[in-house]
TrEMBL record:
Pfam family for this entry, one: DMRL_synthase
InterPro entries membership: LS, LS/RS, LS/RS_sf
Record's function text: Catalyzes the formation of 6,7-dimethyl-8-ribityllumazine by condensation of 5-amino-6-(D-ribitylamino)uracil with 3,4-dihydroxy-2-butanone 4-phosphate. This is the penultimate step in the biosynthesis of riboflavin.
Keyword presence, Translocase: no
Similarity comment: Belongs to the DMRL synthase family.
Cellular component annotations (GO), alphabetically ordered: mitochondrial intermembrane space; riboflavin synthase complex
Enzyme Commission number(s) of this protein: 2.5.1.78
Protein name (database record): 6,7-dimethyl-8-ribityllumazine synthase
Chain segments annotated as coiled-coil in the UniProt record: none
An MF annotation (GO) of this entry: 6,7-dimethyl-8-ribityllumazine synthase activity
Keyword field: Riboflavin biosynthesis, Transferase
Keyword Oxidoreductase on entry: no
Subunit structure comment from the entry: Homopentamer.
């Protein structure tokens, strides 16, 4: 491992997202943390050439609803002849005092993976599963400390463009 190793995603070079259509589905649970994540994904995709009018944003109540909504919206867009190239379901789960966190995190992550594999479209894992609210804020780039942390939505936006191009290009 190099001395200047920095944990996280290495930026991919030469990504051109022009012409790509991307679906973002986000939760209203933990909205103040979800909103900067959505904004981070949108900003990054636009900086890579994706047109704002090609980014469709829809809401659901909570993370448990993300797989169903993503699957349904991908299918209806395809049926209407305007298929998406990728989807980014975005939600923030924060551990509470019961087992809810574990059940929702497990169901949502497996569901999100399944939707992508079944649709044959890259579906990015835009879920934060945090032990505390502070952890979640830092991972949305709006931390309370001197360093605001890192906005993972930006990585998800870049991932959506990179994976869309990979899927289009094929082997
Ligand atoms: N949804 C989230 O996206 N993040 C959460 O942290 C979250 N915590 C929840 C905690 C409890 C006790 C309950 C009942 C629901 C929670 N949900 C959360 C909502 C869940 O994903 C879903 O919207 C609802 O359970 C309705 O299906």
């Amino acid at each position: 491992m190099s001395k200047d190793f920095v944990k996280g995603l290495t930026v991919a070079d030469g990504l051109n997202g022009s012409g790509l259509r991307v679906l973002i589905v986000h939760t209203r649970w933990n909205l103040p943390i979800v909103e900067p994540l959505v904004q981070g994904a949108v900003n990054t995709m636009k900086s890579l050439g994706v047109s704002e009018s090609d980014i469709v944003i829809r809401q659901v109540p909570g993370s448990f609803e993300l797989p169903f909504a993503t699957q349904t919206l991908l299918a209806s867009a395809k049926a209407a002849g305007r298929p998406f190239d990728a989807a980014i379901p975005i939600g923030v789960l924060i551990k509470g005092s019961t087992m809810h966190f574990e059940y929702i995190a497990d169901a949502a992550s497996h569901g999100i993976m399944r939707v992508g594999l079944e649709a044959g479209i890259p579906v990015i894992f835009g879920l934060l599963t945090c032990l505390t609210e502070d952890q979640a804020l830092e991972r949305a780039g709006v931390g309370k400390g001197a360093s605001k942390g890192h906005n993972h939505g930006e990585d998800w936006g870049m991932g959506a463009v990179e994976m869309s191009l990979l899927a289009k290009k094929g082997a």
